[in-house]
Each structure stands twice: as C-alpha cells, then as structure tokens.
Fold:
Amino acid sequence: MEPLLPYDDLPHLTGVIPLLRTLTLGPDTAFAPVADPVVIFTEAPNLKEVVLSNYFNAFCITLPWSQITKLKMTECLYDTEMVAILHQTVVLEECSFALINMLSLPIPPIPPLVHLRSLILSNPNSEAEAYHILLLALTLPALEVIEALESFLGADPIATLSALRPYGYPQRIRIFDARSTSNVITMYTAAFPEATVNVKSMCMWNWEDESDLDQY
Structure:
C-alpha cells in the first residue's frame, strides 16, 4: 500500500527520506501558491521514478531531477516548463509527457540525454508543432523506443527520427496515423530496416497501454 499525503502536509515534513523510490503526485494534489516551494523530496537520495498526474508547478514543489530515471506526465506542461525539466534530467531513461501549445520560440538547446531509451509523446489534442519543435531540440543517442502521433514528427518524420538518434535509429517505432497503415509501414521499414514498426489508427490511441514497452 502506498502512503497518501495531502499537499498541505508536505511543507511540514523535514529530514531525509532514504526509502522513497517512487513518487506520484496525483490529480487531487492542490498546487496552491506558496511562499516557498516544498523541498522535502530533494532529501530523497533513492528517488528514481516520478509520476505527475496533475499540472506540475515548479514554484510549489522542488524535485531532484538530476537523479530521476523514469518520468511519466499525464497532464500537460508548456514547452518552456518541459525544457526546463529536460535540462536537469541527465540520467533519464524513460520519459512520457504531454505538451500544451507552444508559448515561446525558439527552444534553447537541450544537452543530449544520453541515457534516454524510451520516449512517449502523448496528448493528441495538442498542437502538433509544439512536439515537433521540441523534438528538433533533442539529441537521444541511446533511444530504442519511440511512440507518437505521426504529425508530431513534422512534415518529414523520417528526418526527425533520424536526427533524434545520430549514428543509428530507434529499434521500436510505434506511430499513430490516420492514413493507410500499409503505406506508412512501408515508409518506415524502408528507412529503418532493422526496426520493429507498429502503426495504428487514431481510433486505437491508448497511452495507458504500455505493456509492450516494459522490456525497455
């Protein structure tokens, strides 16, 4: 059983929490304005996995991003907020996030995320250009799995995927697309002959089903 704490109790917690490995900030968490952010989680040296199922306000809670290896966001962030997080997640291995439409251009360069193996881009209702511009700022030399709506990859999805991982390409590509799946599969397998390509129609969009990605 996981302990549940209301947000109002967090500012009163002190000390080191060495046994905390996974943190979920749930949809009922209230991110009310505070004079100082909650910093208790910076005293969790073994915290590795974070799930954010509410809009995350960095002014309310400080997280030790530099040690996080798995990050899942089911609510949307603005591009500037996501970029700020990615600048700090130097050991991130798995990432799933959703964006709100763009606020600023251009996106400042993001240091290569050399450990990131799995990237899932969610929120089909967001502006596709928001994802594409962010992807152009990323370098993921270890990327093995990517899952996205094809429009997130821009006018030339093959070029976008190729730029993400220099000197190689993802070994597993899952694309959601409204066009003929056979044509799309042919295009991706021709560009990435050793990759496993899975193309699904938009009606099969389901970001909660990640069982086939668990091996990564």
About this structure: The radius of gyration is 18 Å. Residues 181-191 form the longest helix (11 residues). The beta strands are 22-25, 49-52, 70-77, 94-99, 118-122, 145-149, 172-176, 196-200.
